Amino acid sequence: MLTFDEKLAIAKSFPELEEKKVSLGRVNFQYPESKTDKKNVIYHLHPNGNGFVYAEGISGYQVDQKGMVNIRDFSEEDLHTLIQKSIDKLSAEPKQESMNDSDVMEEIWRNEEGHTLTVIVEEDMWNVYAGIYLDGTFPSYNEAKSYLMEEGFTKQN
């Protein structure tokens, strides 16, 4: 495990990040050029070596409800790679998911047991229904699709 000072040095090696001291000796590193409302790349880096890096939407990482990955046991290379991926993600223009009249407004998804779920766009949200019952609501098609795939459903043609 890297020490606090080693993790701090890695974070400081990214000139595009701004260091912000917070309580209990913890440090955040923010990316002011972020194209999203997220600015923290490194969150609550603690003198005990614990801390988090923003990784929402970056494949290969298990994130918490805030989109953060715990970096306590990361190697130097792994930490450097994740920070760079986080900066790259925050540098990208957010994808605007818009629909026009020719876009599909409803999809049927089925699992191996024969259960079906329906995805319907309603008021700019993607709702998943099991029959007449609402199963989930998602702000984007990709999130609804990810949920359905994780639950073992495939889109029907």
Descriptive overview:
The protein has 157 residues and is α+β, with helices and mostly antiparallel strands. The chain folds into two domains: 88 residues, no CATH class; 50 residues, no CATH class. Helix content is 22%, strand content 29%. It contains three helices and ten strands; from the N terminus they run H-E-E-E-E-E-H-E-E-E-E-H-E. The strands form two sheets. The chain has a five-stranded antiparallel sheet with strand order 1-2-3-4-5, covered by helices on one side. The longest helix is centred in the middle third of the chain and has 16 residues. About 4% of the residues have low confidence.
Concise summary:
The chain is α+β, with helices and mostly antiparallel strands. It has helices at residues 4-12, 76-91, 141-150; strands at 18-21, 27-30, 40-45, 52-54, 68-70, 106-110, 116-122, 125-130, 133-138, 154-155.
How is the topology of this model organized?
Elements: H1 4-12, E1 18-21, E2 27-30, E3 40-45, E4 52-54, E5 68-70, H2 76-91, E6 106-110, E7 116-122, E8 125-130, E9 133-138, H3 141-150, E10 154-155
Q: Please, how many helices?
A: 3
Approximately what portion of the residues adopt beta-strand conformation? 25-35%
Number of strands: 10
Shape: elongated
Oligomeric form of this entry?
single chain
Count of the separate structural domains? 2
Q: Radius of gyration from the CA trace?
A: 20 Å
Average pLDDT for all residues = 89
Give the strand order, joined by hyphens, for the main sheet. Answer: 1-2-3-4-5
Poorly predicted ranges: 97-102
Which secondary-structure class do the elements indicate? alpha+beta
Tell me the span between the first and last alpha carbons: 49 Å
